[in-house]
What we know:
Elements: E1 3-8, H1 11-26, E2 30-37, H2 39-47, E3 53-57, H3 62-83, E4 87-90, H4 94-102, E5 107-110, H5 117-123, E6 129-133, H6 139-142, E7 151-154, H7 160-163, H8 171-178, E8 186-190, H9 206-213, E9 218-221, H10 227-231, E10 238-240, H11 247-252, E11 256-259, H12 262-271, E12 275-277, H13 283-290, E13 295-297, H14 301-311, H15 323-326, H16 332-345
Amino acid sequence: MARIVLDASTPKDVLIIKYLIPLLEEKGHEYIVVSRESTQTTGLLDRLGIRHVLTGWYGTDIISKYRATLEQETRLLEVFQEYQPDLVWSHGNVAVIRTAYQLGIPLLYSNDTPHNIPVVKLTASLATRLVSPEAVAPCKWVEHGADPCSIRVYRGTEEYTWAKEYINVDRDRLRREFFEEPPERLIIFRGVEHKASYSYGAKVPVREIVERISRYAHVAVIPRYGEEETILDGLENVTIIREAVEAPRLIASADMVVSSGGTMAREAGIMGVPTISFYFRDDVLIYLMGRGLPIRYVPMPDRIEAIVSRVMRDPDTYREDTEYLVRDFENHVEVLVEEVDGILSTR
């Protein structure tokens, strides 16, 4: 039996942890979840009933990010000294990773965003094991300091762990979970994480895109930041999802997803939901597009509108049964448990 710290710094981390916990419990391991203050992250933890220790907050500019990291490291030092973990898992929180390294605690590190250079430069070299999808060439980690022998490559994506459950689901039933009067046509919109270190200050015409696509379907916006409500104020046929939700369930109920890219675009593509990425076209998205999943990269608002108008005429004809396209994917959390066993066996 081992003591393991699980780091929940983003909503995606929370979903990984949700699926990882039962596998760790089967092995007889103990765990605690540490988190940082963020409406979506802590709200989702609470919604899923996952107990957690709040150790920090989310900085939104260069100075506040650095201050937040320093303050979280101080709090984590206290938590780690009290809990005495045998292993730490993180998805890229600099504070968690540096604290584990400084205390000599083995670090299991999942990452699929080598383009997040400010974080990768500070963390890749510190991993005991770095778990990465095959879409990312190992050299991209090595050039930022990762030990080539530390990298575990797996087939598929992190999102497959949960997205596979929503292939060929009853969309109407799921839609009723979120709307008293479910719309006939539904598009999920997700903006750019413009306060993140890898896309800080990104400028995207969010209001223009949402206004254009709302002409053809009801648009449910899952906001990243509070100011998006102000940006979209006054638009008709648009709902802002203000409470933390298990986003994959909402995505699975939709006719289409229009997203900056990243997690929700990948989830939707795996589920077979027609998807437009208008900002990112990273390694993983290119990999999934190459697999034939229904994802397009379209950065121009007028082209986005043209595609949406066409799909919304008959959404069912554009939705795909993707099960055969992803059946050979590995389950990310099962890979993590294998790596936990490997690390612990050497202690």
